[in-house]
Amino acid sequence: EAGVAQSPRYKIIEKRQSVAFWCNPISGHATLYWYQQILGQGPKLLIQFQNNGVVDDSQLPKDRFSAERLKGVDSTLKIQPAKLEDSAVYLCASSLNSLYGYTFGSGTRLTVV
Amino acid sequence: DQQVKQNSPSLSVQEGRISILNCDYTNSMFDYFLWYKKYPAEGPTFLISISSIKDKNEDGRFTVFLNKSAKHLSLHIVPSQPGDSAVYFCAASPNTGNQFYFGTGTSLTVIP
Residue A100 in 3-state DSSP? Predict the structure, then answer.
């Protein structure tokens, strides 16, 4: 099966600019996650979707971050405006059943300068 | 508040020997645990899991041990191979089975 696709792989922006990331999960996976991994730390959940509904967004900084999953398939994560501390790898993952773990994409490495 | 901790940032092991990676957690509600392996520039890949009803799970060269009373789990790799060199993350989930909380990772280097 094809894996979780993410784009772009790398992005460099200036602070206060906006940026968007795209994720295409594995076909048939109803659950989609966006994780933020800051250098030297483990991945931290930003938002979890079940189909096109939000299950958990308690750790999403909603003043600047937004995410959507239209039609329950692809998802986009947006940051506006970006801050220096947003520099991180943004990982998208999907699962059929979270008890068997997620399948992660390769991530988007964001550098805010 | 880091609920899952991996206190060893790095570990070096000779090829053929055993690698032991440790993980501690603080939330007694966690009942499902995963180990992920991550190569540079790639996303983490699922390695092995264990639920709280078991204290050991084995898959080839990889064995995960769970000590619920100590809130501790470990991953044993025997024998270690150079291709095992990667960052290993442990992750834990409460009984909702949804969000997993990740540790900070241990970078394993297997020396040929």
Answer: helix
For A73-109, the pLDDT digits (tens) are: 999 999 999 999 999 999 999 988 766 678 999 999 9
Beta-carbon count within 10 A of B112 CB:
8
Strand, helix or coil for residue A52: coil
Question: Residue B52: which of B68, B65, B72, B36 has the closest Cα?
Answer: B68
Q: How many CB pairs under 8 A join A and B?
A: 58
| Closest Cα in chain B to A45 | B99
For residue A17, the distance in angstroms to the closest alpha carbon of chain B comes to 25
CA-closest candidate to residue A10, choices A109, A111, A85, A107: A109
Q: Is the pLDDT of residue B11 over 70?
A: yes
| Closest residue, chain B, to A43 (C-alpha) | B102
